[in-house]
Design brief:
By secondary structure, the chain is of the alpha/beta class. The chain has 16 helices and seven strands. The radius of gyration is 25 Å and the shape is flat. It has helices spanning about 10-20, 25-30, 35-45, 90, 130-145, 150-165, 170-180, 185-195, 230-240, 285-300, 300-305, 320-325, 345-355, 370-380, 390-400, 405, and strands spanning about 45-50, 125, 245-255, 260-270, 275-280, 310, 330-335. The strands form two sheets. It has a five-stranded mixed sheet with strand order 5-4-3-6-7, with helices on both faces. Strands 1-2 form a two-stranded antiparallel ribbon. About 30% of the residues are buried. The chain has three domains: about 10-60 and about 100-145, no CATH class; about 150-210; about 230-415, Nucleotidyltransferase, domain 5 (2-Layer Sandwich), CATH 3.30.420.
């Protein structure tokens, strides 16, 4: 029987060093590997970089060299007014066409050893051994975590087990009488309850609430295959085919390890506007409830207009994309593991939250009304990057008036803005 072995760091270093001089077949022979293994390694673990050409702005438009469009922006600071020389060109030009390099679609599938690196001004992929090794290990770790149940199987399990638990029956009793109807082991049922994936809670287990919890259990994903077709590379391809997609970044902010309440944060990069919704225990079920509460307030049509694409991290609270995307509500994509820079804008926006609520402080004493007040102050704060306008005004200009009011966000007068702990005093 064939023995399959993962590539080591030393082998990846060898691939990187040989890419600029040797073909993939030669690399495969040198390492004693199949050529398909080398191809798959490069395609899966190459690193996306967009740095622009030397002396030129970042511009990934195929029409850049012959473009004659000028003054797309009303307050253009470029004396020549040529839009192809501006980094905002790709976002605002309706004639934008994504540039692509044939080298990325055929061997070696990356930009290592390319002689045009200095003059190339389009998206690039480089194979870096250390980054590739880290991505491979992260992907392996993620694949070994989570629950081996689909969303449908989880719902059926919940419908069967939770009502019986609320009747006072034990997990063992339920399992021995319904083993043929369940999709998991008895031990997994305890894990599902521990991670709040069922309607029933540990409080419904009489003996368990009497025992002291010895250690924190790791978070579990609802769907281990949630990233399939939703990776950051899939996101890039999705965006490339749509010149002006409204991408909203999504994350969670945790108070402390003992907090019940967690903040679901949504950030609109174009307007730099931050929305926050309270949810509980930081589970997939509660994150879904927070999204559904926003949809209930705005209506399906407005929600789809505001949130056509959500970019988030790999937290277990976002591991049920099918439920989040239900009936075409939105599209979910995930950043690469340990790559928070891929949604850096929302990470920076969290700094405003920490001004009001320092890291380690609980959110348990706050209501949604309190959080809306905090967001109102944050979004009324003028930003130099917005031409000295505030996110509230920019958002209303782009999406129309009245939407923020429905979500409890109002504009605060400039002199009344308070971004300290005095806005929402900490409990004594």
């Amino acid at each position: 029987m064939a023995q399959f072995k993962h590539l080591s760091l030393s082998e990846r270093i060898s691939i990187q060093s040989m890419l600029s001089q040797n073909g993939l077949s030669a690399i495969a022979r040198e390492l004693g590997r199949d050529r398909k293994t080398i191809v798959r390694e490069i395609q899966q673990n190459r690193t996306f970089i967009f740095i622009g050409a030397y002396g030129l702005p970042k511009n990934n438009c195929d029409l850049q060299r012959r473009c004659q469009i000028r003054h797309l922006c009303e307050n253009c600071i470029n004396r020549r007014g040529k839009c192809s020389l501006c980094e905002l060109c790709n976002e605002r030009c309706k004639e934008f066409v994504v540039a692509s390099c044939v080298r990325l679609n055929k061997p070696p599938f990356c930009c290592n050893g390319c002689r045009r690196q200095r003059s190339c001004n389009i998206h690039r992929f480089f194979y870096d051994a250390e980054k590739a090794h880290f991505k491979a290990l992260s992907r392996r770790k993620e694949a070994r975590s989570g629950i081996l149940l689909s969303q449908v199987e989880l719902e059926r399990t919940d419908q069967l087990v939770s009502p019986l638990l609320k009747k006072g029956q034990s997990i063992h009793h339920i399992y021995i009488h319904h083993a043929d109807e369940l999709f998991c082991s008895e031990r997994t049922l305890y894990t599902l309850i521990d991670n709040n994936l069922l309607t029933a809670r540990n409080l419904d287990l009489r003996l368990k609430v009497k025992r002291k919890v010895r250690r924190l259990k790791p978070e579990h994903k609802v769907d281990k295959a949630c990233r399939k077709g939703r990776t950051f590379e899939d996101f890039r391809r999705f965006v490339e085919n749509r010149p002006e997609p409204a991408v909203v970044q999504m994350d969670s902010v945790i108070g402390n390890i003992h907090s019940i309440k967690v903040l679901l944060t949504l950030f609109f990069p174009q307007a730099q506007l931050l929305l926050c919704r309270i949810h509980y225990y930081n589970t997939a079920r509660s994150a879904l409830a927070a999204i559904e509460s926003i949809e209930a307030i705005l209506g399906r049509e407005t929600f789809q207009h505001l949130f056509p694409v959500l970019l988030t991290d790999n937290g277990s609270e976002f591991s049920d994309p099918k439920a989040l995307e239900k009936d075409g509500r939105t599209r979910i994509f995930y950043c690469d593991p340990q790559q928070s820079n891929q949604k850096s804008q929302i990470e920076r926006a969290h700094q405003f939250i920490r001004m009001v609520r320092p890291k380690g402080a609980s959110f348990d004493n706050l209501s949604q009304k309190d959080i809306d007040l905090m967001c109102s102050h944050i979004n009324s704060y003028s930003r130099e990057s917005l031409g000295n306008k505030c996110p509230f005004d920019v958002f209303e200009f782009i999406y129309g008036q009245g939407i923020l009011g429905k979500l409890g966000i109002r504009k605060i007068e400039a002199d009344e803005i308070l971004l300290t702990t005095r806005l929402l005093p900490l409990p004594k």
